[in-house]
Amino acid sequence: xxxxxxxxxxxxxxxxxxxxxxxxxxxxxxxxxxxxxxxxxxxxxxxxxxxxxxxxxxxxxxxxxxxxxxxxxxxxxxxxxxxxxxxxxxxxxxxxxxxxxxxxxxxxxxxxxxxxxxxxxxxxxxxxxxxxxxxxxxxxxxxxxxxxxxxxxxxxxxxxxxxxxxxxxxxxxxxxxxxxxxxxxxxxxxxxxxxxxxxxxxxxxxxxxxxxxxxxxxxxxxxxxxxxxxxxxxxxxxxxxxxxxxxxxxxxxxxxxxxxxxxxxxxxxxxxxxxxxxxxxxxxxxxxxxxxxxxxxxxxxxxxxxxxxxxxxxxxxxxxxxxxxxxxxxxxxxxxxxxxxxxxxxxxxxxxxxxxxxxxxxxxxxxx
Length: 368
Fold this sequence. Notes:
The strands form 4 sheets. The protein has a 6-stranded antiparallel β-barrel. Strands 2-9-7-4 form a 4-stranded antiparallel beta sheet, with no helix packed on it. It has a 4-stranded antiparallel beta sheet with strand order 6-5-3-8, with no helix packed on it. It is 33% helix and 33% strand. The protein is α+β, with helices and mostly antiparallel strands. The protein starts with a helix and ends with a strand.
């Protein structure tokens, strides 16, 4: 019933604009002069530019799910938890190994402490063997000691020095190995800690849960999407423009949008982005339109229709678009054959006539 009333109103409007006496055949119209805006029609939907899938970085059972469809979340908020005890166990084990490695590097480390004790003993032995060697060196002068005793004491002293140097070198090597082991375990501990944190899925930024894709108890594999997230501050009308019209579309053009949920309301927007790659799925070019004011209805995926304003002219000769055939001819009252016309701008309702008609001509409707 509503469509019938709207149709009648459109017919009455056309009659009044065409200055035709509606007492006769109401379907006959005359060309009129009026301002016209050329538009490109496109369909599309409400989408968020900034959206992502909240995906699992580990596998296991979905232990907890803390949000529902439509929930508003903030950056870092815990959204879900996956049960993967093996990563937590590995992280704990690596932490224990790191504690041991840090202890081995310290002065109280067993290996280093033992070497320090051996070095201290070797230093005392060097000092003692040095004294013996020096004593025999003095006694040899007065023939109070034999050459064999002198050489033996010298050999003992040199061996003690060599042993001390070897222990000190061994201390350096053991310490370096302990430091290297500590660095490796620190890296492993960080990796394992990150892996354990993968069990918890958190929001990357402020936004809304657009759709939950898994339910509690599901087995999740690495890479599975748990939920679709969207930043509702980045909503646009994503339009599908056909290849015959895309060249006319430019960034900054005004767009008039009607949501399928409220077709009586016109929302104004501006062309924000024209994607350079042809979309194979929809067989069209994608265009983002930024809304000039906040939406009252902002459900993602809501279908819409839009008219992109391309150009405009003032005081041009117009006829209703439905009175022009696909071969660009019109039916003029009193003429048997269709008349060829030259057209200019085409809008959703009117067509500009450049040649072939005058304001005095009366047009008959094209038979369907």
